[in-house]
Amino acid sequence: MTETRKEISCGAVIIRVNHGKLQVLVIRQKQGHWCFPKGHVEGSETEHETAAREIKEETGLDVRFLDGFRECTYYSPEPGVEKKVVYFLAEMSGGREKIQEEELLEMHWASVIDTEALLSYPNDAELFHKAIAFLHKEDPDGVRWPLN
Ligand SMILES: Nc1ncnc2c1ncn2[C@@H]1O[C@H](COP(=O)(O)OP(=O)(O)OP(=O)(O)OP(=O)(O)OC[C@H]2O[C@@H](n3cnc4c(N)ncnc43)[C@H](O)[C@@H]2O)[C@@H](O)[C@H]1O
């Protein structure tokens, strides 16, 4: 009997406020799908360390994680592999946009509506809805996070 191999990646839904509107960072992988920055855990990294490193490598950006949000998605990237991706919610805090050309085709700051339309996989869309619901609960009046 062949054993199932387990993989874990970590990443984040990254947000910023630009001209009074909330924007979300979406990336397009070389395989063609739109998703959020993420990548495999290396060595003894914590989940946050992995997410921060992968975000920096893929986008050039630094982030500040928002407390209280951690959600997982699950899928099989290839037969015999079970993959779990741990997602945080993070605010862009600095750095300079620089796409990782070996793995990505493009990155884009999108509105909430455009992000929903762009995401390629239903499990990523479900994760995104949870992130938006979290922001709305934290800030119902949309003062800090204008959900437009
Ligand atoms: N265990 C390991 N440790 C360290 N490095 C490893 C490793 N395994 C592989 N690597 C290598 O490391 C490189 C960089 O990886 P990373 O950059 O570290 O990893 P990743 O983004 O989590 O994933 P990856 O690029 O492997 O593919 P994904 O799941 O998005 O996409 C793979 C497939 O899943 C599909 N998919 C993606 N997201 C999905 C979703 N949400 N739902 C369903 N299917 C999805 C895609 O269409 C695609 O066909 C890879 O090129 C790989 O060669």
TrEMBL record:
<dbReference type="GO" id="GO:0006754">
    <property type="term" value="P:ATP biosynthetic process"/>
</dbReference>
<protein>
    <recommendedName>
        <fullName>Bis(5'-nucleosyl)-tetraphosphatase [asymmetrical]</fullName>
    </recommendedName>
</protein>
<dbReference type="GO" id="GO:0000166">
    <property type="term" value="F:nucleotide binding"/>
</dbReference>
<dbReference type="InterPro" id="IPR051325">
    <property type="entry name" value="Nudix_hydrolase_domain"/>
</dbReference>
<dbReference type="InterPro" id="IPR003565">
    <property type="entry name" value="Tetra_PHTase"/>
</dbReference>
<dbReference type="GO" id="GO:0006167">
    <property type="term" value="P:AMP biosynthetic process"/>
</dbReference>
<dbReference type="InterPro" id="IPR020476">
    <property type="entry name" value="Nudix_hydrolase"/>
</dbReference>
<keyword id="KW-0547">Nucleotide-binding</keyword>
<dbReference type="InterPro" id="IPR000086">
    <property type="entry name" value="NUDIX_hydrolase_dom"/>
</dbReference>
<keyword id="KW-0378">Hydrolase</keyword>
<dbReference type="InterPro" id="IPR015797">
    <property type="entry name" value="NUDIX_hydrolase-like_dom_sf"/>
</dbReference>
<dbReference type="Pfam" id="PF00293">
    <property type="entry name" value="NUDIX"/>
</dbReference>
<dbReference type="GO" id="GO:0004081">
    <property type="term" value="F:bis(5'-nucleosyl)-tetraphosphatase (asymmetrical) activity"/>
</dbReference>
<comment type="similarity">
    <text>Belongs to the Nudix hydrolase family.</text>
</comment>
<dbReference type="InterPro" id="IPR020084">
    <property type="entry name" value="NUDIX_hydrolase_CS"/>
</dbReference>
<feature type="domain" description="Nudix hydrolase">
    <location>
        <begin position="5"/>
        <end position="136"/>
    </location>
</feature>
